[in-house]
Specification:
By secondary structure, this protein is mostly helical. The two termini are about 25 Å apart. The chain has one domain. It contains eleven helices and no strands. The chain is globular.
Length: about 325
Amino acid sequence: MEDWKTLALVSGVLGLLTVGTIIGQFLKRHPDTGLNAAAVRAFNLRLRAWWMMCALLATARFIGEGLTVAMFGFISFVALREFITITPTRLGDHRALFWAFILFTPLQYVLVGLNAYQLFNVLIPVYAFLFVPARIALSGDYKRYLERVAKIQTGLMICVYCLSFAPALLYLNIKDYAGSNYRLLFFFILMVQMGDGLQYVWGKLIGRRIIVPSISSNRTWEGFLGGIASNTLIGAALWWATPFQPWQAAGLTLVISVLGFCGGMTMSAIKRDRGVKDYGTLVEGHGGVLDRIDSICFAAPVFYHITISMFPR
């Protein structure tokens, strides 16, 4: 039994969040420290979002694999709804959207729950991607046709297909790691979120050169490099919680940290294009669900596929 590793990992994260919360509340109640009040508020709001994420992961550990997959399916449904809501639709899109929500989203997670890799790996990028343009064409509405098709396909790919690879980690058959896949899922989400948070912290501390000013004024080269480097070291230090060797854990953490950054930039570009600040208002101070999982969506399929290449099914 290796439950002590799961307990150690979760306890360590909760301990760090507790310390961070205490520091955040202290800074909030003592504005005379000289720190930027907006930065302190953003720090506390991020901590609140991380508490929510840890609560979801802790819940997943006890409700079982099937309900965990269903929970991620619900998150995908909400995220897709947020994505579609910020983009204009026409009457000719409604039937395609109906099937996207009612058929393809739940079916993707049913196949994940059945561990039917050969099917859930192609359902959306092949069958849904063929269905959506055909269904919109049958509506007879050709105005901005390519734009409308691409919008629905992009939403399905990011919000449903990519995110579904996170709970799919629970079904990987890894030698000498049986029964510990929840820890792998926890490690993955922790490293993605930690990378995002560390990039923010380093950016606030030493950030000077903004990477893409027109997309995000908060992402700097100093924050990106500092966050990636420090997160990679943390990932290597937590190798014992994974089926990887230290260098493998470091390499995977590096990869998913970069992909998480790409996810954040991509979704920010979409928001700028649509002229909105956030995808929704569900998470106070941090917008909607999609604002919190954009990094996870981009990193999940790559992390999954690298893992199965190291430990063949």
